[in-house]
Amino acid sequence: MRDSRPQSLESFFDCASQSGIDPLRDIQKRATALLKLTQTVRALLPSTLQPWCRVANYRQGLLILETANANWLMRLRYEQPALLSALREQILPSLVTIDIRINPALAANIHESEVRQSSQELSATSRQPPRILSPQSAEILKGLATQSPERLQKILERLASLAGESTSENQSSE
């Protein structure tokens, strides 16, 4: 029976260094291979599916793909036969089947990147200089307010007065 008690990492690396095997190098090679395989799979998928799919593992002719939710799972299943034949032709002739699994963390990662991107866009737009309403435009708004209903008149007058304040602030700061 196999001894499955926890072992320290030091003993693991000591045994590996004595035998001449570098486990970190093997892990790095495996991770790099999976990343390249993910890029190839995404290139073969329609653009709508690409961000929602990644390669989780490949072993013994079985390719395991992860997707965010059941909606994308069904779309991937629709693409599965074409993907299987394309991967066999291009890089994995030993590929037997593709297993697709749902990983909600993938959706969370995509959501985080979208939030990060939208916040960057928002900060870029917030750096634009404030719009300045000229005194002539403020006078036009006041003239329009005199001919407008009472509720709209108050709004237009308030807008015209703010325009005067913003121009005076900008002139004093220059």
Automatic annotation (TrEMBL):
Superkingdom field: Bacteria
Annotated protein name in UniProt: DUF721 domain-containing protein
Source organism phylogeny: Bacteria, Pseudomonadati, Pseudomonadota, Gammaproteobacteria, Enterobacterales
Annotated organism of origin: Musicola paradisiaca (strain Ech703)
Pfam name, any one: DciA
